[in-house]
Design goal:
By secondary structure, this protein is of the alpha+beta class. It folds into 2 domains: 255 residues, no CATH class; 134 residues, no CATH class. 33% of the residues lie in helices and 24% in strands. Strands 1, 4, 5, 6, 8, 9, 10, 11 and 12 form a 9-stranded mixed beta sheet that branches. Strands 15-17-16-19-14-18 form a 6-stranded antiparallel beta sheet. The chain has a two-stranded antiparallel ribbon with strand order 2-3.
Amino acid sequence: MATVKEFSALRFTDAAGDISQLVCAPYDIISEEQRKNYINQNEHNVIRLELPVGEDRYNEAGKILNEWLSSGILAVDDEDALYIYEEAFSVKGVNYAFKGFVSRVKLHEFSEGIVLPHEETLSKAKQDRFNLMTATGCNFSQIYSLYSDENGEADKLIAKLSSGAPEQSFTDPDGVTHSLWIAKRSADTEALCRFFDDKKLYIADGHHRYETALNYKKSLAEQGVTCEAADYIMMFLVSMQSSGLVVFPTHRIVRDLAEFDRDSLLAECREYFEVEKLGCEHCIEGRLEELYKNNKTAFGYADKDSAYLLTLKDISVMDSVLPDKSKALSRLDVSVLHSLILERCLKIDKENMAKQINLTYTRDLEEAFSAAKNTADCCFILNPTRVSEIAAVATNDEKMPQKSTYFYPKLITGLVMNKIK
């Protein structure tokens, strides 16, 4: 099954400065203003490699990488290791933490059933990451993947390998504490790697980058270039049984429909849903949380002057709506929303959704409400997808719609990097 091994990571040296000012959030959630702020804090921030700008931005990233390697800003560790990584944070006053490790993982086509995706990807993002990988020969950020460890076997080894003080630890502006332990190759690291010999891995975040690595490997082969390191991708692995995993929902904003009529939409929804008018949009979140705890499928609806709660009457309707899909996929909240409301009632087809013509996405509840009040037709508020549901869909070799999950917090970029060639 999965092949996991130690490696010598590319990391910032002390000459680069304070590590907290050298790392950045994932490239796909960074605004131009945030990008500038990172560089203003420290000119060596990894953002200059992970999210280059300008007409020749990819080659510029390659040039900067070589300069930092030559000047000692970046260096490859002397010994192979596993890099134990923990994020500690709070959500709504509750403290969470999860700990896993960064390693190299052998690349496999999704069809082999060893590394499994859970949602669709966009070609534009993959081309961007491929161009950067070709110019730099590096992974600057890790794929975020889950595995099953029901008996806690891997967790015990991870705890043992990180029993001392961390090599690095800092708290970012969002209040997330990032800690890193370096576990050099030993009998324990080798035992941890062997644990995955019969395991499947489920990508939580980083589908575009994983597919990019597959394309990069093929590209080198087509050029006749032999590079063993290109057969692997840098990946963060964490147990899906971890109590610290938090998944946020991604809400849907509907905009610019040629014809939009709230009353007609709600009338059609009543065929499948109990429709309850609410006093205001801010009542939605609490009501959805109650229904989530009771395993009910429900959505919040808001537009410029009204809010409703839509609760599915009978989940079994999805068996006939998506007869060629597994129950794991067809009964997901996001599948219900897309199939029964967005496609059937609003006539927003899958191609439209993929191109984001009339549908956009946000994790921010207030952003969704603001758009519905000011610039959009309406928004739909969702509950989060459960980690167990994500694994069930991936195991069935199926994919959720884009933007079905948002694992929080995101992994930091630049703490550990993978130099391929």
